Amino acid sequence: MLATIVDTDALLETVAVAVVAGVGIAIVFSFAIYGFARFVDARREDASLTAGAAATLAIVALAACAAAITLGILAIASK
């Protein structure tokens, strides 16, 4: 009987979660950048409704990034 040195199931799960979290955070943060860029453009054009929607998108995306980072730190700290 061979000894198991590496738990491949746990390793694959860790890699999969890391890839999904990394790509997800990058996409959400890109929404924040897009929202801020649209906000600046809309403010220059005096389109207040569009500027408000873009600012809301940016703030919500940044809040989601902050929440995901906080959850990640809490998950690491709890182990």
Describe the structure.
The chain is an all-alpha fold. The chain has 2 helices and no strands. The protein has helices at residues 8-44, 48-77. Helix 1 runs antiparallel to helix 2. The two termini are 31 Å apart. The mean pLDDT is 92.
Please provide a brief summary of the model.
The protein has helices at residues 8-44, 48-77. With 79 residues, the protein is mostly helical. Helix 1 (8-44) runs antiparallel to helix 2 (48-77).
Annotation keywords:
79 residues; 2 helices; 85% helix
Multimeric state:
single chain
What is the percentage of strand-forming residues?
Answer: under 5%
Give the uncertain stretches in residue-range form.
none
Number of DSSP helices?
Answer: 2
Mean pLDDT, nearest integer?
92
Counted beta strands: 0
Topology of this structure?
Elements: H1 8-44, H2 48-77
Helix pairs in contact: 1-2
